[in-house]
Amino acid sequence: MRRISSTLSVLACTGTLVACTHEVPTTTRTPGAPRFSAVSNGASINAVNVSRDTTAQNETPLAFNPVNPANLITGNNDWNYNDGCGVNATFDGGKTWTPTLPNGFIPGITRFTNDPAVPGTGTYDFGGDPAVAFSPDGNTAYFTCFGYLGKTVALWLSRSTDGGRTWTAGGPDHPLTLVSAFTGNGKARGSNGQFPDHESIHVALDGTIYVPWAHFDGFSSHSPIFIGVSHDGGASFDIPVRVTSGSVHSDQDARVVTDPATSYAYLTFDNSIQGGKGTAMFVSVSKDRGASWSRPVLLATFQNPVCLYPPYCFNISGGQFRAPGSYPVPAFDPTTQRLYVAYTDIVGGLAQILLTYANVADITKWTTPAIVAPASGDRINVELSVEPSSGRLDIMTNDRSYTGNTLFDVSYITSSDGGNTWTTRRVTKQSWDPAQYGVPCGSCASGVRPFIGDYDGIVSLPGSAAMTWTGPGKTFGLYPTNLEVFFVSVAP
Q: Phi/psi class of residue 94: alpha, beta or left (left: φ > 0; alpha: ψ in -120 to 50)?
């Protein structure tokens, strides 16, 4: 998420629902610039700096074209002048990417472009929470993100028919598709903490587009999950369906995966129950392409969920920074008919990755969560995917195991036997301290807000796992706000 994930995030930035400005800080940092690489079949492969600029990007979803896997897109929160939703595309498997400047952003969201002399085609002051996907035939790429203007917050979908090079132009002649077009409880507005937040996107094999989000309605941390569904390739969305209610309503981190054989959709999310975000995780199923959803089923509970939200909470060691906490990540394995969920929990004083699954014949029966490849340092920011033809499980995580639990690296963890055994590889060559870097913040004394984003990206292909994440760029000494998007493809 970009600026707001709850009323707390609004307060943390400015005290009101107003964007942080892009003042260039004068603070300098001294550590060397990290070099990124991956190990593949014993060979060292340098990772690619996707964004290649001097201003921060974070939150890096990833999707590949199912017809042409060399065509991938990644999104980001782009803190350049457009202050909106950034996008980069590759057509050679990640070796080169479309540039961030000057046009690497989704038009039709903000009133700005990355050229102060050229106005934007949107109406919002800033945008955020990127999510990306492709249609099953590969002809259309999808990008969702929020637009923010004063007390107004709305969720939009943009489309690309050239693999991510260009996107819906925006403006009255070429408008984006409004996803959160509804009224009543959960109205798309920002007053009194009423706003939609942290959406994701999933496109089923039958072409159905699912966009779930949490909707804060102004009553404490009350945030039921809504889902917008499109059956016409994103040209329009049905009236959003409220999935959660009753005691299961203070929710976040909603994601959907589908079974390609049955088209059943499975929604996972976390829930505070009696207060305190991330106490438990739930799953709900739709058997009618998103028209209705089952009563949520408890799939697991946290022992001590990671909370990296200073100054309100920070429960791992070291300098404080804002980053992902504990959230469920689903993946569906068509070879075994298993619905997997990975998440982070603090066990024995360290944040560890846990994995549980249910056979979709009965999603009320979940295995006892097991620690994945126990680590000697904290692991957070977990992403999970499944290679559908083999059932190979791929996980990526920010990992402090290589530096005595002090600095960050990225690890790739994979299993070819349903999670019985795991292989772990270090993806980064040099570690870094996320407390020393961040995004521009005009209201912060240092001009920098340490914030690496709330999620990364991973996709599984038959011969590789591709990953995107946030890391520091080469100009860290002059610009500690230069967080970049990095990409690597790793052979299992």
A: left
Q: How far is CA 25 from CA 145, 174, 439, in A?
A: 27, 37, 10
For residues 154 and 147, give the distance between their C-alpha atoms in angstroms, rounded to a whole number: 5
3-state secondary structure of 435: helix
Any domain includes 189: no
d(CA 39, CA 246): 48
For residue 371, the enclosing domain spans 29-51+302-492
Q: What are the beta bridge partners of residue 380?
A: 398
**Quick check: is 239 in a domain?**
no
Has residue 325 been placed in a domain? yes
Helices (H) and strands (E) in the chain, counts: 1, 35
CA 253-255-256 angle, 5° bins? 165
Cα distances from 444 to residues 8, 14, 15, 25, 447, in angstroms, run 16, 9, 12, 10, 5
pLDDT tens column, 433-472:
999 999 999 888 889 999 999 999 999 999 999 999 999 9
Cis peptide before 102 (omega within 30 of 0): yes
30: Cβ contacts below 8 Å, ≥ 6 apart: 477
Residue type, 133: A
Confidence of residue 150 (pLDDT cuts 50, 70, 90): confident
- Picking from 413, 422, 351, 416, the residue whose alpha carbon sits closest to that of residue 387 is 416
Q: Is residue 122 part of a domain?
A: no
Q: What percent of the chain has pLDDT over 70?
A: 85
Phi, psi of 191 (to 5 degrees): -70, 145
Label each residue of 144-163 as H, E or C.
EEEEEECCEEEEEEEEECCC
Q: Of 264, 307, 267, whose CA–CA distance to 289 is shortest?
A: 264
CA distance 108 to 228: 20
For the chain, how many structural domains are there in total?
A: 1
- The span from the CA of 9 to the CA of 11, in Å, is 5
Please state, in angstroms and as integers, the Cα–Cα distance from residue 430 to each residue in 31, 132, 288, 378, 456, following that order: 11, 29, 48, 17, 19
Per-residue exposure over 202-211, b if at least 16 CB sit within 10 Å of its own CB, e if not: bbbeebbbbb
